[in-house]
Design a protein that fits this description.
This protein is of the alpha/beta class. The protein is globular and about 60 Å long. It folds into two domains: 177 residues, Medium-chain alcohol dehydrogenases, catalytic domain (Quinone Oxidoreductase, Chain A, domain 1, Alpha-Beta Complex); 136 residues, 3-Layer(aba) Sandwich (Rossmann fold).
């Protein structure tokens, strides 16, 4: 089996294309083996490449969390048949604990993500439980299907479930060049919100306008918190979607209005942030975390994909044998949308 792997942490130089790995076998009655046609990168892949605390990988470790392809083999209790076109939910939970039964699968104590806790999708084959698959239409490209799940699932849970964005809300989204931000923009617009986006690139901001952004802010040129307050007559926004962390936290809170909700799914600039607790209680803010999504939320985004209501933005497509180039593109920050690896 061909795959993109690492055997040590570091930079893109650690990525190795292999063509001698064993094909994974079905081990449970509900297992499904998927022949992957395309995978897609997320910032998680860069973190995994560099090394994550408390995460141990077994060399050669297969990279990648997102993927789409065709069912190759299916267990008798899977409900799938060979030849069906599918995309993958990268988050695997036990399905039986208190959190899973309460529709909170990402809190499962055994929760794991493909490419981080389980062998990844940048390979010819991957085996997952049937509950981690959704069928895709015959006219949907594997490129789009691979670029869709993780970013959209993360954005959906942040916007719909956690922040509960409503029609008329003002929502600020940081870093519109990334997949989660772009999907959050589309979801918020679908809910009837007024959406503000930031980027350090005027070109990306103009492309965001074409996606439906109402207000654009170059965060290299202005203090975002102050600018939002100036444009809103000091009111601020109702919701901030922040996955950047240290570099943006102060400005995120500066932009947040009374009774505002800040939802975060990451800290790409660093994990440690400071909050003035007096402003927190005086303004009655809600600060919440969010990770991945539940099977119910995955079904919701799969329906939106099938209906054409949500689609990913694809930056570029790279063949598996040149997978290192895909990682370098993502690490550069120059991408607008998802970097896809064609298997």
């Amino acid at each position: 089996m061909r795959a993109l792997t690492i055997s040590a942490h570091g930079g893109p130089e650690q990525l190795v294309f292999r063509d001698d790995l064993p094909v994974p076998e079905l081990t449970r009655a509900d297992d499904v083996r998927v022949r992957i046609h395309a995978g897609a990168l997320n910032h998680l892949d860069l973190f995994m490449l560099g090394g994550l605390p408390h995460i141990t990988m077994t060399p050669p470790w297969i990279m990648g969390s997102d993927g789409a392809g065709v069912v190759d083999a299916a267990g008798p209790e899977s409900g799938f048949r060979p030849g069906e076109r599918v995309m993958l939910n990268p988050g695997i939970s036990c399905g039986t604990c208190e959190y899973c039964l309460d529709d909170a699968a990402p809190l499962c104590l055994r929760y794991g993500i493909l490419g981080e806790h389980h062998p990844g999708t940048l390979a010819e084959f991957v085996v997952v439980p049937a509950g981690n698959l959704a069928r895709i239409p015959a006219d949907a490209s594997f490129i789009d299907a691979a670029a869709f799940p993780l970013a959209t699932l993360t954005a959906w849970r942040m916007v719909v479930t956690r922040a509960q964005v409503r029609a008329g809300d003002n929502v600020l989204i940081w870093g519109i060049g990334g997949g989660v931000a772009q999907q959050a923009l589309q979801i918020c617009k679908g809910l009837g919100a007024r959406v503000w986006v930031t980027s350090g690139s005027d070109e990306k901001l103009e492309r965001a306008r074409q996606l439906g952004a109402d207000e654009v802010l170059n965060h290299r040129a202005v203090d975002v918190g102050r600018e939002v307050r100036a444009r809103t007559g000091k009111r601020g926004v109702d919701v901030v979607v922040d996955s950047v962390g240290e570099a943006t936290w102060k400005q995120s809170l500066g932009a947040l209005g009374k009774r505002g909700r800040l939802v975060t799914c990451g800290g790409t600039s660093g994990p440690m942030v400071e909050t003035d607790v007096r402003r927190l209680f005086w303004n009655q803010w809600t600060i919440m975390g969010s990770t991945m999504g539940t099977p119910r939320e995955f079904a919701a985004i799969a329906d939106a994909f099938a209906a054409g209501r949500l689609r990913p933005v694809v930056d570029s497509v790279v063949p598996l044998v040149e997978g290192r180039r895909a990682f370098e593109r993502l690490a550069s920050g120059a991408q607008y949308g998802k970097v896809v690896v064609e298997i």
